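I have been asked to look over a protein record a colleague put together. Alongside the sequence sits a line of tokens, each denoting a local backbone shape. Please read both lines and tell me whether the tokens look consistent with the sequence. Take the sequence as given and treat only the tokens as open to question. I have pasted the whole thing underneath without changing anything:
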Amino acid sequence: MRTTKNSAAVDAKVVERGFAACRCCRLSPLCQLASEHGTSGSIVCRGRRLRRGEVLFREGDAFEALFAVCSGSIKTVAHDARAASQAIGFFIPGELVGISGLTARRHTSDAIALEATEITEIPFGTVSEAMDSVPALRRIVFQILAEQLAHDELLLLPLVGKKSATERLASYLLALGQRYAARGFSSTEFPLSMSRNDLSNHLGLAKETVCRLLARLSEEGLLSLASRRVRIHDLARLTELAGQRYAA
């Protein structure tokens, strides 16, 4: 199994218990810098626990805070004029949720916990006020937002272009592995916490198609699935199926 240097497989107990520490929170640089400059009193960092299926925010709710996933996972769901739902994103530990609501100051989707999940919340109004007095804080906020844009582009990668069903699924698994690797974990062994319904909806495929493709990839020895976790055994072959160039 190929992993990035210093990375490790994402252990379920680590995700459930230990990943919620401040050192793993994407918003911790804000808290740290605010503390160094004596403005930590104005930036109040709150931890929240969500049960599986619990809603963090709804489409149309006012954008009032930055949310970082510390453990567990969250899906975002948008609705069209006919009330049809579309899973537009899945967020893992270390990622921010709901940034798209910053422009209009309204959330553009629902955010729902896929499992027991811990998040960190910082009211955005207090961050804006602190940015006025601490220029370095402004730079960190801009850096976080820029990284979020890059993250969103990675989310779209499996969906752009005229990809076949196999290419879409393979591309998504590779992109998800890259996101875990960016946070110090294995790029080839990680949780796959969303349901097959949610995954197929996100990829624009039928559930039966996704289930059939996962079974085929497993039978061919490219990956294995157990307890909502995936382990990629043949990264080169999966990359080829995604229509991408494999870099050993």
Q: What stands out?
A: The domain at 162-241 is CATH 1.10.10.10 (Arc Repressor Mutant, subunit A). Confidence is low (pLDDT under 50) at residues 1-21. Residues 55 and 112 are 4 Å apart (CA to CA). The first strand starts at residue 46 and ends at 50.
